[in-house]
């Protein structure tokens, strides 16, 4: 579940603005004083302001409210805010006008992605809020909850939503409960677990429901059992009457899972070590389910080394396979795709460059491009608009950077500087990069700390680098007065083993990585160490991929049939885009040489998170 502030603001605007019935003009009015319909709002806000000066109260305020609503609906939050500030609630002569002014002004701040201004406004107008009837107070509390969520105060937003839910009408309840669930999917799992123990009433019920769904290690049978027990305990809970669709689909997914699964992996050749790690991950998940006394599928492994894919696939189907997992090699996946629609569902363990996006050929992997796109989306949500890009001079580095740049520019972002590096020219590369940036913002030649300003100059750097490269690049940035420049990186920056003395040079670098790497004290980790005491070294992430590949065999039905559903996995939060499984990783930051997990907008297996600075 990707909890996006921009989408939340848009939802709030659609649900609340369209339901906002503005007051009719009061008293006798001439044609000159009559409030203009929203569709007649002037194109230029300066014209609107001028025309407002020609109107008398209360028509002036009524007209301003109607035009502001028009601007908001047409994605012109700044214009709406300017118009509302011209008449403010001091001009409002009726309770209706005061309510609509306050509501629209709050929505304008939210649409402009300025939740703190919205919260300040609501706090300042508390006396006005207290004068509204119960229904209007409830709607304003819903807006406060939206503002809190946009301000990353998810727990406070959640409490507000749950508290106000019973006071809302049915339409607002549907909206509110959807956002309650998204917040529950986005809270750090440790926070959810600890706060559920102290929660009471409906809030506790919501948290317990979220916990049974979000357990990153739970077998689907255990989840169904816990859901049945939850329903018995919380028969009158709002979620029992309006169960989140993805939770309700668990039972059907358990019934639809395959009984026999064929796994196509190489046993020899260059990909054999990677395949072994994936196979070990799948077997660890299998043993975990077996130990819990839950049903497990019949797993059969087939060697694809040198095999003809058509022949091997037919052999698996003849053996009774209802689902095929693999192959791993991209060429083998392409060979399989070229055969046309397979007779059973296939979960390939790699992505096609130009492959089919239609079921049943699903594609799952650990594409660094997904991480690059996730970083672009997060940076945009944080208010960045101008980026720098630094990556290795290689085909792989170019591919990852292109994924970031494409996603960044699709949102409207600009790339101020783009630079490649080789291991023997890191110093000159960083020096030239910062010189280019300073020329761009007019500070060339200054030997002072670079001051990144969101929206005005390069406010962050997207860096693709290995741990050794990063340990040199970050100190070089500090040396060239860019210590305060936020640096975001892919998981390539971290080898998965804490090394505080070496990685202290990476302090301040934020990066994305899978929960399996960031949280290493779970029950599955202990089981993995007992089963595979030698570990899997550089293939540890592929081991995690095997864990999730096993879990996906029982959950593909849910991901296929329930729009917006996801799987909180050990590789990240997984959802379907067509037939491609997209992975949302977790966030961390190097502090004193160690990766410290950070909350993010998403519902992966984040087991021990702190707060964003």
Automatic annotation (TrEMBL):
SUPFAM superfamilies linked: Periplasmic binding protein-like I
Keyword tags: Membrane
Region (Disordered): 25-49
Top-level taxon of origin: Bacteria
Protein's UniProt keywords contain Membrane: yes
Pfam family, one: LppC
Name of the featured protein: Penicillin-binding protein activator
Species for this entry: Alloalcanivorax gelatiniphagus
């Amino acid at each position: 579940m990707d909890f996006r502030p921009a989408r939340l603001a848009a939802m709030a605007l659609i649900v609340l603005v369209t339901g906002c019935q503005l007051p009719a003009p009061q008293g006798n009015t001439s044609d000159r004083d009559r409030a203009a319909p929203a569709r007649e709002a002037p194109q230029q806000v300066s014209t609107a302001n001028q025309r407002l000066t020609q109107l008398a109260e209360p028509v002036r305020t009524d007209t301003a409210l109607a035009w502001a609503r028009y601007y908001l609906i047409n994605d012109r939050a700044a214009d709406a805010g300017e118009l509302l500030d011209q008449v403010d609630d001091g001009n409002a002569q009726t309770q209706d006008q005061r309510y609509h002014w306050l509501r629209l002004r709050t929505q304008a701040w939210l649409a402009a992605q300025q939740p703190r201004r919205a919260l300040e406004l609501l706090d300042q107008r508390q006396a006005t809020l207290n004068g509204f009837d119960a229904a209007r107070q409830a709607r304003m509390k819903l807006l406060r909850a939206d503002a809190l969520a946009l301000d990353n105060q998810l727990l406070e937003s959640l409490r507000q939503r749950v508290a106000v839910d019973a006071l809302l009408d049915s339409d607002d309840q549907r909206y509110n409960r959807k956002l309650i669930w998204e917040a529950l999917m986005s809270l750090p799992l440790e926070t959810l677990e600890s706060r559920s123990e102290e929660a009471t009433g409906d809030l506790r019920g919501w948290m317990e429901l979220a916990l049974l769904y979000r357990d990153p290690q739970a077998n689907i049978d255990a989840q169904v059992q816990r859901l049945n027990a939850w329903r018995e305990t919380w028969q009158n809970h709002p979620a029992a009457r309006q169960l989140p669709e993805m939770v309700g689909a668990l039972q059907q997914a358990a019934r639809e899972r395959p009984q026999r699964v064929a796994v196509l992996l190489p046993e020899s050749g260059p990909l054999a070590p990677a395949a072994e790690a994936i196979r070990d991950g799948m077997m660890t998940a299998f043993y975990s389910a077996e130990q819990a006394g839950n049903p497990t599928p019949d797993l059969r492994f087939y060697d694809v080394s040198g095999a003809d894919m058509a022949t091997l696939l037919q052999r698996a189907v003849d053996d009774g396979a209802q689902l095929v997992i693999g192959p791993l090699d991209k060429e083998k996946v392409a060979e399989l795709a070229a055969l046309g629609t397979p007779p059973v569902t296939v979960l390939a363990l790699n992505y096609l460059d130009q492959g089919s996006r239609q079921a049943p050929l699903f594609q799952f992997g650990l594409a660094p491009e997904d991480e690059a796109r996730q970083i672009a989306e997060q940076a945009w949500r944080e208010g960045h608009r101008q980026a720098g890009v630094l990556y290795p001079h290689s085909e792989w580095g170019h591919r990852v950077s292109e994924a970031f740049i494409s996603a960044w520019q699709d949102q409207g972002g600009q790339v101020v500087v783009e630079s490649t590096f080789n291991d023997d020219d890191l110093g000159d590369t960083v020096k030239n990069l910062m010189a280019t940036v300073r020329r761009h913002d007019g500070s060339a030649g200054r030997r002072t700390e670079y001051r990144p300003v969101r929206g005005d100059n390069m406010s962050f750097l997207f860096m693709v680098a290995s741990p050794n490269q990063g340990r040199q690049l970050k100190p070089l940035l500090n040396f060239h007065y860019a210590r305060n420049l936020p640096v975001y990186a892919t998981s390539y920056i971290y080898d998965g083993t804490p090394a505080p003395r070496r990685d202290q040079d990476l302090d301040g670098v934020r990066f994305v990585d899978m929960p399996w790497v960031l949280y290493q004290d779970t029950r599955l980790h202990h089981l993995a160490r007992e089963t595979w005491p030698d570990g899997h070294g550089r293939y540890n992430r592929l081991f995690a991929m095997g864990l999730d590949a096993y879990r996906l065999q029982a959950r593909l039905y849910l991901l296929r049939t329930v729009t917006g559903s996801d799987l909180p996995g050990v590789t990240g939060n997984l959802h379907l885009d067509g037939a491609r499984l997209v992975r949302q990783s977790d966030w961390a930051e190097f502090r004193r040489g160690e990766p410290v997990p950070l909350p993010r907008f998403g519902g992966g297996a984040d087991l021990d998170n702190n707060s964003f600075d």
